Amino acid sequence: MNDEKIVLCIPGLWKDRSELIEAVARKSDGFILAGNYISKLKEDTDSFFEVELDGYNEQLAEAFEIAGNGTFSKKELSTLKKHSLTIYLIGEGGSFHKITKIVEVAYALLKAGGLGVKVESSGVANTIEKWSKVNNANDMVELFECFVSVVEDTDFYYSCGMHCFGLPDVIAFKNQVSPSYAQELMQIFCLYSLIENPNLIDGSTFSIDENSPSFILRQTSCRHFPEDDLFHNKYGIWALVKKD
Predict the structure, then answer these.
(1) What is the CB neighbour count within 10 angstroms for residue 97?
(2) In what order do the strands lie in the sheet with 149-152?
(3) The pTM is what?
(4) Cα angle at 133 between 129 and 135, to 5 degrees?
(5) Residue of 88, 221, 96, 80 lying closest to 147 (CA atoms)
(6) Would you kindly state where each structural domain of the chain is located, as residue ranges?
(7) Pairwise CA distance, residues 110 & 102, whole Å
(8) What Pfam families has UniProt attached to this entry (predicted)?
(9) What is the pLDDT of residues 162-220, one digit of tens each?
């Protein structure tokens, strides 16, 4: 693929591949699963996606719980522990249009019996309810919340997942911002980048509002994930450096 690869993990209670194929055909409103691909009948290639199937994984429910950041109920997690088959949905990202297409396919798989969606490309897990909301809303803020997270490291905070939209991620440093402010700052900066598509260059400045601290943007490469990691951002990183 020439564009950014997005991988979504969707577990279910299907007993085997045949049951999954039947469920998709009956319940997904026009999608079919054939071979290693899922596509929508009478649609263009935008609705043509690769799939890989895997069996039971005893660590999957815990991974969803951690990546879901408290959004999954005990009942939902209990059901996830009983999954028997997992679909890995693979497609192209890099734009709002492409993201909405893979969201639609993942929603079709949820309708066919999927139990939730974990974005393997950023480590964010979403409930059926949340994914249904983002599929129906077709809203940039909702998409952002489903695909991007803010993570704490030893010396800095960083966003993970902006490469899904074809944009750099962002880091802020612990000696310059508090944990709560880092979350707000980085989320607003990412949404600003997504919605306004500003012409940012090295040395540009950013502030949440006129009463908030200003930051100088420094452009750098993504060094905290190797190039073959799904988390790696080939578009680079914006470092937010607080002005004196």
Answers:
(1) 8
(2) 149-152, 156-160, 169-173, 237-242, 215-220, 205-206
(3) 0.92
(4) 115
(5) 96
(6) 5-144, 149-242
(7) 12
(8) DUF4261 (PF14080)
(9) 999 999 999 999 999 998 899 999 999 999 999 999 999 999 999 999 889 999 999 99
